[in-house]
Design a protein that fits this description.
Aspartate Aminotransferase, domain 1, EC 2.6.1.9, 15 helices, disordered N terminus, 2 domains
């Protein structure tokens, strides 16, 4: 019973399993023991802190002490709207007092980290009193070998978002322009506005990047172009021929960032291998992450591959400890765990089929996706359907902020999670007979 109780602990057993071999099941139980150990340590830590600090006083500022701090910042910061991530499970539990929640909102890996990554995490716990390697030497060496590039071409980030911001900070100022597509990742306009640069949003074509139009948008003040391939939140992708043609027309004084956060999920053979193009296009920067297919979203670890001179400039601005010890160790292990990535892809393919069949049955149009998510038109205000789904214990992602007010973005989960969402969506739409 004690063992069953540990495995049934919320947060440890939400990732249900399909029918799998006893060997794989045993390995999953080993993984659960590692997670259970960390979970118990967390509980002990919280109890210790509660005992040491039983009473905490909340500091409140009365009106006479208030200050118009917003007047102290530049206009681009004052008007900046912060990025809104997918609603956490714990937040919905607090708001509605419900449990057994399914989250399909943040394009996370429903399997979480692989066993090798979990073992690496457990091994490095005892050394957390020391700072991490500020240069990330071991991970950079592993990435260099994996990608067949020099380690001097790699820049590590606190997630690939961190690297995207570094590029904007290093290469653009308030005098410059940054080009990106309509319906593209929200971080592109955010980092552009944060540094005071002018954002050029190019209208999308068939929900994705219109590269000929983006090429035309490049002017004498353009310093950076952001391209997501596949794109989030629409899931569209760009083939090698189209991207190559675009890069040929870009001046070498303009940095082109190809964001490949979802590259592992692409199945088509014409998907470009941008890392191999770096010798042809020295102004190209490729960003990738361990958050998606590798299941390390909570550790925040990503990287870029670029010309060594670009990497040198990025590393001058990068904070020395932006990648923590646990993330570095887990990423090295995850990079070697190709079996976990392959299993992730198989589950994603099956889940994508499960979702699209349901959308066809419900008569809903969706955007064909090359990622681990699907954006669907719910034929009305997406926010309203999103709110109904919340009350049914299902979290998805409204994308009105991306210019898609009638759509929802659905992350692909495990079979039972997908089924739970489909039933909740059917009920929310009033389609159930």
């Amino acid at each position: 019973m004690a063992i069953q109780a540990i495995f049934a602990t919320p947060g440890l057993s939400r990732r249900g399993e399909e029918t799998i071999s006893p060997i794989i099941l045993l390995r999953q139980h080993e993984k659960q023991w590692i997670i259970a150990t960390l979970y118990i340590r967390q509980i002990v830590y919280r109890l210790h802190n509660h005992t040491c600090f039983p009473h905490q006083t909340t500091i409140r500022f009365s009106p006479p002490m208030s200050c118009d701090f917003i007047s102290l910042v530049s206009g681009n910061i004052a008007s900046l709207k912060p990025y809104r991530p997918g609603k956490p499970i714990e937040e919905l539990e607090r708001e509605l007092g419900i449990s057994n929640i399914v989250k399909l909102a943040s394009n996370e890996n429903p399997l979480g980290p692989g066993l090798q990554a979990c073992e690496a995490i457990a091994r490095c716990i005892q050394d957390l009193g020391r700072y991490p390697d500020g240069n990330g030497f071991v991970l950079k060496q592993a990435l260099a070998a994996h990608l067949s590039v020099a380690s001097e071409m790699i820049t590590l980030g606190n997630g690939s978002n961190d690297v995207l911001e570094l590029v904007a900070r290093v290469f653009a100022t308030a005098e410059h322009e940054i080009v990106f597509s309509e319906h593209a990742f929200a971080v592109y306009p955010l980092v552009t506005q944060a540094i005071g640069a002018r954002g050029i949003e190019v209208p999308a074509a068939r929900w994705g990047h219109d590269l000929p139009a983006m090429l035309q948008a490049i002017g004498e003040h353009t310093r950076v172009v952001f391209i997501a391939n596949p794109n989030n939140p629409t899931g569209t992708r760009i083939d090698a021929e189209t991207l190559d043609s675009f890069l040929q027309g870009v001046p070498n004084t303009v940095l082109v960032v190809v964001d490949e956060a979802y590259r592992e999920y692409v199945e088509e053979s014409d998907y470009p291998d941008c890392v191999q193009w770096l010798s042809r296009y020295p102004n190209l920067i490729v960003t990738r992450t361990f958050s998606k297919a590798h299941g390390l979203a909570g550790l925040r670890i990503g990287y870029s591959i670029s010309h060594p001179d670009i990497a040198d400039l990025l590393n001058r601005v990068r904070q020395p400890f932006n990648a923590n010890s646990v993330a570095l160790a887990a990423a090295v292990a995850a990079l070697a765990d190709t079996a976990h990535v392959e299993r992730t892809k198989r589950i994603n393919d099956t889940g994508r089929e499960q979702m699209t069949v349901a959308f066809h049955r419900l008569g809903l149009e969706y955007i064909p996706s090359a990622g681990n998510f699907i954006t669907v038109d719910v034929e009305g205000p997406g926010q309203a359907i999103y709110d109904r789904l919340l009350h049914k214990g299902v979290i998805v992602r409204p994308v009105g902020d991306y210019g898609l007010p009638n759509h929802l973005r659905i992350s692909i989960g495990l079979e039972q999670e997908n089924a739970r969402f489909i039933q909740a969506l059917e009920d929310s739409l009033g389609c159930r007979e």
